[in-house]
Amino acid sequence: MKRVIYTSIFIVLLFAACKKDNSMSPTNESPVVKAAATYSVIVNQDITYADGLIHDAAGTSTITTPLKLDLYFPDNSSTNRPVYMFIHGGGFQGGTKTKPEIVDMANYFASRGWVFASIDYRTASDLAGSDFTGIAPQEWIDFTLLNATTPGDARTSIAMYAAQRDAKAALRWIVANKDMHNINSDFITVGGASAGAISTVTLGISNQEDFRDEIPLADDPTLSTTNLNENYVVKSIVDFWGSTVKLELFESVYGSNRFDSDDPELFIAHGTLDPTVLYSEAVELDSIYNSLDIYHEFVPLVNEGHGAWAATVNGKSLSQMTFDFLAARQNLLVE
Question: Is the confidence at residue 75, as pLDDT, over 70?
């Protein structure tokens, strides 16, 4: 995929959306959410959603590790709840599902009627060795070893694959357990920040089989724990200062561009002065969505850098802006 270089930033434009509008009127099946914090929030922490392979401390062999998520849900009697799964950042080196800003966001949405899942996943910190069999497919490993300039770069590339495999497994777990938590799987939102947003965009855009079927069970027996028979349909993507870099890497390895006109609707928020994931990455994703004529909203966070959790636009926080987007575009019933 060719990158587009922009010589100026359109900081005066606070919102940009394409023309295509697939919204529908709310129905009796649309979940009800609250405009204000209404419900007490119940939190179930460290739920194992799957297992995965990592290296042992010596880096000499692979071992199995449980993959965990935290689930926040409203203390109400609703049997028709939308779900929002969020993926933390950390440059694929580390990070945590309990980052305070994510916990705040989880409580914001759960207190208004959503089930909110914050997930952990494998990162480069789990990869101390040099044999990545079962952690990534051989073609990904071969491409990585051919193109990586340092061992650290190689571990990051392998971790990007593992993180995506895990994010998809977490979403399949949510679908597999939807009845237990009264989730309506027709209303799935996936979101993330930084590296988590890179995985989020890839989760929403890639095909069901991508990052699922490339490794044989003989190489990674833990795949059997990942609800392989479950499918999902992502309704909305929320991208905080992310990019398409993982989709570009997937295309480089497999020769397949996964963007098409059936992709989910998208909300982008990105700092115009971001030195880590450049603002031009958001402009590029905006351009792709414009070319595909898919509804999306693009919010430049003017004069903000990376990780602009406290940013506001017209007095609205990231959570408030995201709430407005999801409620309107998913046609939720807001009370």
Answer: yes
Whether 1 is in a domain gets the answer no
Q: How many domains does the chain have?
A: 1
What does the alpha-carbon distance between residue 142 and residue 71 come to, in Å, rounded to a whole number?
Answer: 37
CB 83 within 8 A of CB 187: yes
Mean pLDDT lowest among 28-37, 184-193, 302-311: 28-37
User: Which residues, in sequence order, are CB contacts of 196 under 8 Å at separation 6+?
Assistant: 86, 87, 88, 89, 90, 95, 242
The tokens for 329 are 């575009």
CATH number at 180 reads 3.40.50.1820
Number of Cβ within a 10 Å radius of residue 265: 25
What residue numbers bound the domain in which 58 lies?
Answer: 32-334
Flag whether 65 is in a domain. yes
Residue 275 inside a domain? The answer is yes
Tokens of 51: 């297992």
Q: What's the pLDDT band for 9 if we cut at 50, 70, 90?
A: very low
Q: Tens of pLDDT along 236-280?
A: 999 999 999 999 999 999 999 999 999 999 999 999 999 999 999
Residue 103 identity = V
Q: Is residue 23 part of a domain?
A: no
Instruction: Please state, in angstroms and rounded to a whole number, the distance separating the CA atoms of residues 170 and 149.
Output: 31
The string over 207-228, giving b where at least 16 C-beta atoms fall within 10 Å of a residue's C-beta and e elsewhere, is: eeebbbebbeeebbebbebbbe
The secondary structure of 9-33 as a DSSP string is: --TT---B--S--------TTSPEE
Contact 140, 150 (CB under 8 A): no
What φ, ψ does residue 85 adopt, rounded to 5°? -100, 130
| Sign of the CA dihedral with 18 first, then 24, 30, and 33 last | positive
Please tell me the predicted confidence (pLDDT) of residue 4.
33
